[in-house]
Amino acid sequence: MRVFLFSLFVLFASCSKENTGDFKVDVNEIKSVQTSAKMKMIEGGTYKAFIGRDEENIVKVKSFLLDETAVTNAEYLKFLKANPQWTRSKILKLYTDGSYLKSWKGDYQLPDNVSPNAPVTGISWFAAVAYAKSVGKRLPTIDEWEYAAAADETTKNATNKPEFTKYILDAYQQKQMYLKPVKQGKPNYYGLYDLYGVIWEWTEDFNSVMMTGDSRADKAENNNLFCAGASVTTKDLKNYASFARFAFRGSLDANFCIANLGFRCAKDIK
């Protein structure tokens, strides 16, 4: 466990970016795509955030919809065919670190060893946002993702269960699970699959770890995105699983394309 913690601190320390400012994607040219992806309603409430925002770390989350699985290769391929400007050969250099869909055989050809129903990976934040826009959705915020992922199979909030933390840490040790189809395990309380151990997932505010108030309301705070600076304010270093997620998010730039990094979409309830 000490080795695990050390590697996470190195991950935090290796991040050198400061305030990254506003990330924007030009959505004017994005064509709409029909999707059959099922969404689950996540009833709003409060949760104790891992990173300090106020004295109690209590964050309010409004009710929202969240995809039951990560976006798959097949779903993303449909998006690419409708929006060829986002294919590997045509994507703007601004939107990728050069590794975008690196494992694909071509603009519209999946790798031989990957299921079409496996989660799409090697996707930058920009590309994830573009896909979400095309299907009339958005990326979940960190608070929304963490709130929904706090549930085990039977309980809305299982974060105080030692066995739940062990389950998450064990899942994080699995390798190349992203090559297999989604729905690899049982759904959680809300009906969501594969939140742990299959892929890491982009969030709307992936490196904005110091926000206040309602998770969707404080737009002004979102302008001050920075690199994992809240690592010094965490109050529960025993929560290695949460630390791992925040360390990983804090190490990212919006153009990063990583082999086991994908996304799922969210939507407001009107």
Account of the protein in words:
This protein has a three-stranded antiparallel beta sheet, with no helix packed on it. 24% of the residues lie in helices and 9% in strands. The model is unreliable at 1-21 and 210-238 (pLDDT under 50). The chain has one domain (2-15, 40-268): paralog of FGE (formylglycine-generating enzyme), CATH 3.90.1580.10. With 270 residues, the protein is of the alpha+beta class.
Structural features:
270 residues; alpha+beta; paralog of FGE (formylglycine-generating enzyme); 3-stranded antiparallel sheet; two-stranded antiparallel ribbon; 7 strands
Give a quick rundown of the structure.
With 270 residues, the protein is α+β, with helices and mostly antiparallel strands. Helix content is 24%, strand content 9%.
Tally of individual domains: 1
- Count, helices: 7
Shape: globular
Q: Roughly what is the average pLDDT, rounded to an integer?
A: 80
| The top level CATH class name | Alpha Beta
